[in-house]
């Protein structure tokens, strides 16, 4: 491979001159040395060919580690180059050993005198007519007997002595002593090959990829290979060539494919046994910084290991300091090359050595979990693995923590400790992969009730049981923890119990009463720190559900959101804080925080996180009247986590989806969703209130009024009993009012609507607006506009565009009934546009303009028969005129338009006058619905 000789021209020319230019008959010795893969063999072959071209005879051989123990292996190869005898075979100088003969000791290279003299005579005959060059590759692996014969013959040949050209490996192996001795007696030429420079790498690449790409990728390749030509060719063999004329570019970083890996393994193996052992040790440890540790692992003396490290660095396998592999793919290849049994033994020994050396639990754990060798149950092993799992959880490395605990359970001999490890594993599973946790939690229920687990573990398991609907097991476990707390007060456990009580009060209130006694405990000190954020978040959620100060709730919730990093262990805390904002009617901040958390969960590819936050985002979208967004997020949440993984929490995303589909008029879809099985235990949770209310909305929309009333009443009964009778959870009283209204009982409807209005705080404009809309429907037409106007103002403040569309539609119809047709049309048209924007398809269809005599429409009044203004006329409007006209189409007054666009009322009037003239209309109600703009959609 000629490209292996890049930056070798000077050495090649020097050696050819050294051998081919001799005239004095003196023998010469040329030694080519260098790291593995540096091009020694290619240079030896090129020099041999160059010397032969000058009339020199050549005998060549390649030594190999596998043949080093066989006497005369190299000599036998050399004899293959001699002229054949009459039988076609080369002359036989020595008897071939039988496979049954014992192998001689390498340290005793004694050769019978007859063989020495015979080989000497053979070489003498060859050198009579022409000079002779003997070339041996990898001479460091040559058998001692062959080297003895060579030294004997070359030294004793008078006159025209043969020359010797050898290639030998790295400095650790060294040149054999017999060759060194010949170098002292004959003329010597030493050539040392180093790695290619970055410029040399560039030159090699330019032949394949061109100068431009070579300039671009040479630095990265030189860094990855250390300039080793063999490794470089491995990379080139793995990299697709750009098609001719395609102008394609190659990747900036080396593609470490199979050929690159094989080339690296070849370099490691060809360096000899010590290099191979050292490379494997470094691969297992991940580096060679701790040299005594590496020596103990591979069982070699420090001097030998240092030589091996130096050789591996020279070969481009390790970095220049010799502390780590240049490329991770090489380390992976070395590890994969290890036989399974050897790998397990090395890992086990490495773990013990690291442990005894005081290494971090994480470093020790990496060795213990990376092999499955059955090992004795040593007491320190599960302890180290559990500690490593705790460190990993703190760093949000949940997968590694899980593997640590799984290995710890297998390697633990103590039944009590094994039970505690299973509990730790179950706690992680229900937090990060709820769909896989139910069985684990069920298996630990009995030990938890019996007090066989530490109380803090028992408490965490109880929370998982609550999520999975195992209410009896959960309450029994919590009672067990409370008993321990009563007898042995503990600050940290007290804080965790406080958080558990707040969680049950806000999310599992139907089960709270089953835990009859909660011991009091002063919370503070160092042990309570871990529970601070959960307690703050849960306190904010409970306050929101009890309709306490919205500002205080929002501030406390946002403190948690600002001060908590998103991890598997903190996800529930952040979700709780988000829900506090939602129930406090702070939908704007809730949207911003939720979108940030969703983006982070998306970036980190965490499906369970995405499911949790999408469920909250769906509820926010529904409360803002964005029905399409609510459906999208709720469906994503249910796809990202299987139904059985939601536990009782499935009530929330399912309820939001049912409410949104019902508001859109997709009643068949909503009915199918309600046929999905849900846990019975869900009805005793906050999620159950969401579900009952959603089912009631569906029943109401499909004419099953008494069933709807039953669901709304059940919802109210639970909420009152739980002490969270807040419309911001679900406005069940409004459901009752709308149901009585549908039954044409205006008196009952007004009673429920007034009750809801009286209970809603000023900080709940969305609820107050909806209550006024329902209450207005119970009044005579003449009394409705005022109340509906108040409802619209409140809903606009609360940001609920769906309820606002309904209120606008009611107000438009009221004005029509009062004979104010034009005004009614504008309001209905505005409601129609808003219904379209928020995805309320059923409401949108019910408000759609219907053509009437004269070519106009009931709500739109477009002058043309097709309901559209002349296209050219509309196109002639300026941007400013279009913005004003679009808002006028929505029913905004001139004053409101001026305020929205930050212009004067006079400017609005001027723009409208020009619009009327351009599209040939006389009145505001004749403005075409086709006038649309982003400004209108923002109304």
Sheet with the most strands: spatial strand order: 2-3-4-1-5
Name the structural class: mainly alpha
Number of helices: 48
User: So what's the overall shape?
Assistant: elongated
Helix share of residues? 55-70%
Overall mean confidence score, pLDDT: 85
User: If you compute it from the alpha carbons, what radius of gyration comes out, rounded to the nearest whole angstrom?
Assistant: 43 Å
Question: What's the oligomerization state?
Answer: single chain
Uncertain stretches: 86-90, 96-108, 521-528, 851-857, 859-868, 933-939
β-strand number: 5
Main beta sheet: 5 strands, parallel
Fraction of residues in β-strands: under 5%
For the terminal residues, how far apart are their CA atoms? 74 Å
Topology summary:
Elements: H1 9-20, E1 28-34, H2 40-52, E2 57-62, H3 73-79, H4 113-126, E3 132-137, H5 144-156, E4 163-168, H6 177-185, E5 187-193, H7 198-209, H8 211-225, H9 229-238, H10 258-270, H11 273-285, H12 291-298, H13 302-314, H14 328-337, H15 340-356, H16 361-369, H17 380-394, H18 398-410, H19 415-432, H20 438-443, H21 445-449, H22 455-467, H23 471-487, H24 491-507, H25 509-512, H26 532-545, H27 550-563, H28 571-583, H29 587-603, H30 607-623, H31 627-640, H32 643-646, H33 651-664, H34 667-674, H35 686-701, H36 705-722, H37 732-742, H38 746-759, H39 765-777, H40 784-798, H41 801-817, H42 821-838, H43 841-846, H44 871-875, H45 879-889, H46 894-901, H47 905-919, H48 934-937
Parallel strand pairs: 1-4, 1-5, 2-3, 3-4
Descriptive tags:
mainly alpha; 5-stranded parallel beta sheet; 48 helices; 3% strand; disordered C terminus
């Amino acid at each position: 491979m000629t490209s292996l000789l890049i930056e070798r021209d000077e050495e090649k020319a020097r050696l050819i001159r050294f051998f081919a230019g001799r005239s004095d008959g003196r023998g010469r010795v040329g030694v080519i040395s260098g790291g593995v893969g540096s091009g020694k063999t290619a240079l030896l072959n090129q020099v041999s060919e160059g010397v032969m071209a000058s009339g020199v005879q050549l005998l060549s051989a390649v030594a190999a580690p596998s043949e080093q123990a066989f006497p005369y292996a190299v000599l036998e190869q050399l004899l293959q180059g001699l002229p054949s005898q009459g039988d076609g075979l080369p002359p036989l100088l020595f008897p071939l050993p039988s496979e049954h003969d014992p192998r001689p000791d390498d340290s005793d290279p004694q050769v019978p005198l007859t063989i020495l003299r015979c080989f000497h005579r053979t070489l003498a005959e060859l050198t009579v007519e022409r000079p002779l060059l003997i070339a041996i590759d990898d001479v460091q692996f040559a058998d001692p007997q062959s080297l003895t014969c060579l030294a004997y013959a070359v030294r004793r040949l008078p006159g025209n002595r043969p020359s010797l050209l050898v290639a030998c490996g790295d400095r650790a192996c060294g040149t054999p002593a017999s060759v060194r001795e010949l170098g002292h007696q004959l003329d010597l030429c030493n050539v040392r090959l180093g790695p290619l420079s970055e410029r040399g790498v560039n030159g090699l690449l330019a032949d394949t990829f061109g100068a431009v790409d070579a300039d671009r990728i040479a630095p990265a390749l030189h860094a990855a290979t250390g300039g080793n030509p063999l490794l470089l060719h491995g990379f080139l063999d793995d990299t697709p060539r750009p098609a001719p004329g395609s102008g394609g570019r190659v990747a900036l970083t080396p593609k470490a494919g199979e050929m690159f890996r094989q080339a690296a393994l070849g370099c490691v193996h060809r360096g000899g046994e010590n290099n191979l052992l050292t490379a494997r040790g470094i691969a297992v440890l991940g580096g060679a910084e701790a040299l005594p540790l590496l020596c103990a692992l591979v069982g070699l003396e420090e001097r030998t290991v240092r030589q091996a490290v130096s050789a591996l660095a020279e070969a481009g396998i390790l970095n220049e300091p010799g502390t780590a592999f240049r490329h991770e793919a090489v380390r992976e290849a070395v590890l994969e090359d290890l036989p399974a049994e050897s790998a397990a033994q090395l890992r086990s020994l490495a773990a013990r050595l690291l442990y005894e050396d005081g290494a971090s639990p994480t470093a020790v754990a990496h060795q213990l979990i990376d092999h499955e060798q059955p090992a004795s149950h040593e007491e320190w092993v599960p302890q180290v693995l559990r500690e490593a799992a705790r460190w990993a959880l703190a760093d949000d490395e949940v997968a590694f923590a899980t593997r640590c605990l799984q290995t710890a359970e297998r390697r633990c001999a103590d039944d009590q400790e094994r039970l505690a490890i299973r509990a730790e594993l179950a706690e992680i599973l229900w937090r990060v992969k709820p769909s896989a946790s139910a069985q684990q939690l069920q298996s630990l229920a009995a030990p938890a009730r019996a007090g066989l687990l530490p109380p803090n573990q028992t408490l965490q398991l109880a929370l998982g049981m609550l999520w999975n609907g195992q209410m009896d097991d959960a309450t029994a476990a919590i009672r067990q923890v409370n008993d321990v707390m009563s007898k042995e007060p503990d600050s940290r456990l007290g804080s965790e119990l406080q958080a558990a009580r707040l969680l049950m009060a806000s999310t599992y209130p139907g089960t709270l009463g089953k835990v009859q006694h909660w011991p009091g405990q002063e919370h503070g000190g160092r042990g309570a720190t871990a529970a601070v954020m959960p307690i703050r978040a849960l306190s904010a959620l409970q306050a929101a559900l009890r309709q306490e100060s919205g500002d205080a709730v929002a501030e406390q919730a946002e403190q948690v959101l600002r001060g908590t990093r998103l991890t598997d262990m903190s996800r529930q805390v952040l979700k709780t804080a988000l829900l506090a904002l939602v129930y406090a009617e702070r939908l704007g901040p809730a949207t911003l925080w939720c979108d940030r958390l969703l983006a982070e969960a998306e970036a980190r590819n965490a499906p369970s996180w995405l499911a949790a936050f999408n469920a909250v985002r769906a509820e926010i979208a529904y409360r803002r009247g964005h029905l399409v967004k609510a459906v999208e997020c709720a469906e994503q949440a249910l796809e990202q986590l299987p139904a059985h993984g939601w536990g009782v929490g499935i009530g929330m995303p399912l309820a939001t989806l049912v409410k949104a589909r019902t508001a859109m008029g997709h009643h068949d879809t909503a009915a199918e969703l309600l046929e999905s099985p849900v846990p019975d235990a869900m009805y005793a949770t906050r999620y159950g209130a969401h579900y009952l209310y959603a089912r009631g909305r569906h029943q109401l929309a499909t004419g099953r009024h008494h069933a709807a009333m039953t669901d709304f009443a059940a919802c109210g009964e639970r909420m009152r009993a739980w002490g969270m009778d807040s419309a911001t959870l679900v406005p069940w009283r409004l459901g009752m009012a709308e149901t009585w209204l549908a039954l044409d009982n205006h008196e009952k409807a007004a009673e429920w609507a007034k009750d809801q209005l009286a209970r809603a705080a000023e900080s709940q404009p969305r609820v107050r607006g909806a209550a006024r809309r329902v209450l207005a429907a119970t009044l005579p037409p003449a009394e409705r506009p005022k109340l509906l106007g108040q409802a619209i103002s409140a809903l606009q403040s609360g940001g609920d565009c769906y309820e606002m569309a309904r209120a606008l539609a009611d107000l438009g119809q009221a004005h029509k009934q009062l004979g104010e047709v034009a005004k009614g049309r504008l309001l209905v048209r505005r409601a129609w546009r808003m219904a379209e924007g928020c995805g309320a398809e059923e409401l949108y269809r019910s408000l759609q303009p219907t053509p009437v005599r004269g070519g106009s429409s009931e709500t739109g009044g477009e002058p043309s028969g097709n309901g559209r203004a002349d296209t050219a006329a509309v196109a002639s409007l300026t941007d400013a005129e279009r913005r004003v006209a679009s808002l006028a189409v929505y029913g905004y007054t001139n004053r409101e338009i001026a305020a929205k666009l930050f212009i004067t009322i006079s400017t609005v009037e001027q723009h409208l006058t020009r619009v009327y003239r351009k599209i040939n209309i006389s009145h505001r109600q004749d403005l075409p619905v086709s006038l649309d703009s982003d400004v209108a959609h923002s109304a």
